Amino acid sequence: MDGLRHRVVGLPATIKGVPAAMVEAVRMRQTDENLDNKFGTHVWSNEDLDPVMPERRNWTTWTFFSYWIGESWGASTWSVGSSMVAGGLIWYDAMIAIIIGHLIGSILTIWNGRGGSIYHIGFPVWIRAIFGPWGGMIPVGVRCILDLVWFGIQTYFGALFLDIVFQCVFGHSWTNLHNSLPESSGTTTRFMVAYFLYWCFQFGSAFFRPDQLRWLITLKAFTIPFACLGLFIWSLVRSGGPGSFQAIAPLGSATSNRKEALAWAIVAAINNAINGEFGPLIASEPDITRYSKRPRDQIVGQMLAAPWSASLTATMGIIAASCTGKIFGTAYWTPAGILQAILDENNNPKTKFAVFLVAFTFMVGQVGTNFIANLIPFGVDASGLAPRYINIVRGQIICCVIGGWCMVPWKVLVSGAVFLSCITGMGIFMGCLVGIMLGDYFFVRKGNYFIADLYTSNPDGRYWYFRGWHWRAYVAYICGIFLPFPGFLGTLGVKSMAAPLGPAMKLYNVGYLTSTFTGMAVYTVLCKISPPHNVAEAKTMPFEYMGKMEVLHGISRGNRDSEDIEDIAVTEEKKL
Fold first, then answer.
1. What mean pLDDT, rounded, does the chain reach?
2. Contacts of 365 (CB under 8 A, 6+ apart)
3. Which contacts of 475-478 are long-range, i.e. CB under 8 A and separated by 24 or more positions?
4. Beta partners for 466?
5. Are residues 412 and 420 in contact, defined by beta-carbon separation less than 8 angstroms?
6. DSSP symbols for 319-369
7. Measured at the alpha carbon of residue 127, what is the angle toward residues 126 and 130, in degrees to the nearest 5?
8. Torsion 479-281-142-473 (CA) sign
9. Lowest-pLDDT choice from 16-30, 127-141, 204-218, 305-319
10. Spatial contact of 208 and 423, defined as CB atoms under 8 Å apart
11. What is the distance of C-alpha 143 from the center of its chain?
12. Tally of CB atoms within 10 A around 221
């Protein structure tokens, strides 16, 4: 273990241009002192980046099953299918696309979560093995930006449900609240009050780590399906059955090649189903699976829930949209839209109470969605960018503040169509990243990683490459996004790239899968042709051999002053 001590080399605990007193004020002293005691000056680690200790690995098969039930039976998934039909797809084509897309997304999710469940490290540490310690900062930074934007958007959706809750409780006293904001703000005083209160409501979740909020995941899994089913059954009973599904799709004009257009629309729907429900979560899956009690828990739990639950919810959304078109004359794609229409039509006490229960359940569910999908990834990623100053809790607080307010989601969703297209289209950047991660784990290193070398800035470290950058990973990354990138520009307004059936848009319509498998193939081939110096050692070992004897460096909970590194041998029988 002395070798580990010498390999871990840090950087000065100062920031150029920032007063030393300010740097000292924000530095995590206790964590910093503990790291100094063990390793000397060390900036690549803190308690949230180190491998998860055995006593904190409490995510079981049921936890992962509950996670996907709660995540899939929600407002975002509900609207996926109906928006596809609204875009012109026939309802059964949309259902087929959703089922295929969610099955592919589930497989990629479980595949990419394998390493986290074996080595118990998160995405920002994992990426160091592939891109290098410094090179990994860019993918982590991209992921942070996406987390911030989507946190704000999900908070906006949660505030919509709180607004409905207040309508049920306070009636006209709430709906007639005077608006003192200008039209240019893109919102109203009433909604901003609801938004602020909802932001405060979910802010408390920022102070917890994933292993501390399993109860929230279980609560969401038990409650949100009843809200979805209740809304779905009401729509069926009230309408007497679905109306014409084409009533929720625009008429549009006939194309010269309708079959080709329909085929590419289905392909695009499959891609959107993967990117919309699974895309950001696939890359950061190790942030969740690192808490697995056993590797098989994440496999069984997610496979039992992820493929079918999201598809079922999206299908209910399609049928409910058709029913609401028959009831109200206008199809509503979202649960919030349906609940608001019910209140506008009939606000008697019984109706208000029923709407209150459903809206409140969805509102609480949004807290769980934001916590898992955005707060945790940003907290871990931000910790990876500045481990001496940010732990996961501090990172989550930063996400709440910046994502909730600086991203101005009420403006983005109302008038920021180009910006929203940009953020949605960035799935190609994350898909390519997933492909490279999968190629590195399964085809290049056979699942063998030397964990201690992921926390060192010593040039002799196995993953230091060239000054902390791995050129093969970046060549593969550029190749992966090269093919769908012109179509991505087309969605941002570059007219020469925006032809619906042009080559650029066709490649973009399968952008997530194209970038994923292109990145995987290019990276694997490059590592075969020009192997990194650290690959030969890993390839001589059996698959995941290193994962069966892992070294977890951390401070014993029973002796906070100990300078010893805790060696924990995990036998093959216990792992499997």
1. 85
2. 70, 73, 74, 75, 220, 223, 224, 227
3. 475/522, 475/526, 476/432, 476/435, 476/436, 476/439, 476/519, 476/520, 476/522, 476/523, 476/526, 477/139, 477/432, 477/433, 477/436, 477/519
4. 469
5. yes
6. HHHHHHHHHHSS---SHHHHHHHHHHH---HHHHHHHHHHHHHHHHHHHHH
7. 110
8. negative
9. 16-30
10. no
11. 9
12. 24
Instruction: Give the dihedral sign, CA 46/563/568/444.
Output: positive
Closest of 383, 505, 532 to residue 28, by C-alpha: 383
DSSP for 156-221? HHHHHHHHHHHHHHHTHHHHTPPP-S-GGGSS-HHHHHHHHHHHHHHHGGGG--GGG-HHHHHHHH
Q: Is 6 helix (H, G, I), strand (E, B) or coil?
A: helix
Give the C-alpha separation, 44 to 553, whole Å: 13
- Contacting residues for 29 by C-beta, under 8 A, at least 6 apart: none
Nearest to 557 by CA among 50, 164, 190, 175: 50
Q: Rg (Cα) of the chain, in Å, rounded?
A: 25
When pLDDT is cut at 50, 70 and 90, the band that residue 11 belongs to is very low
CB of 278 closer than 8 Å to CB of 102 = yes
Sign (positive or negative) of CA dihedral 554, 555, 556, 562? positive
3-state helix/strand/coil string of 486-551: HHHHHHCCCHHHCCCCCHHHHHHHCHHHHHHHHHHHHHHHHHHHCCCCCHHHHHCCCCCCHHHCCC
Rounded Cα gap, residues 557 and 60, in angstroms: 23
Phi and psi at residue 469, to the nearest 5°: -125, 140
> Which tokens hold the place of 5?
């001590």
- C-alpha–C-alpha distance, residues 397 and 391, integer Å: 10
Q: Report DSSP state, residue 16.
A: T
Of 190-204, 263-277, 330-344, least confident by mean pLDDT is 263-277
User: How many whole angstroms separate alpha carbon 148 and alpha carbon 141?
Assistant: 11
Domain 2-416+555-575 homologous superfamily, CATH: Hydantoin permease (1.10.4160.10)
Cα distance between residue 361 and residue 383, in whole Å: 32
Please indicate, yes or no, whether the overall pTM of this predicted structure exceeds 0.85: yes
The 10s digit of each residue's pLDDT in 80-139 is: 887 788 767 888 888 999 999 999 999 999 999 999 999 999 999 999 999 999 999 999
Q: What whole-number distance in Å separates Cα of residue 122 and Cα of residue 284?
A: 8
User: In angstroms, rounded to a whole number, what is the distance separating the alpha carbons of residues 61 and 137?
Assistant: 32
CA angle 549–211–59, rounded 5-degree value: 60
Cα–Cα distances in angstroms (integers) from residue 502 to residues 352, 426, 429, 517, 535, in the given order:
50, 20, 21, 22, 41
Distances (CA, A) of 183 to 172, 180, 187, 195, 362: 22, 9, 7, 17, 28
Domain ranges of the chain: 2-416+555-575
Half-sphere exposure of 508 (CA within 13 A, CB side): 22
Dihedral, CA atoms, 22, 28, 30, 36, nearest 10 degrees?
-90
Which of 425, 417, 418, 413 lies closest to 156, judged by CA?
413
Going by the DSSP 8-state scheme, the letter that residue 132 receives in this structure is: -
Which residue type sits at 3?
G
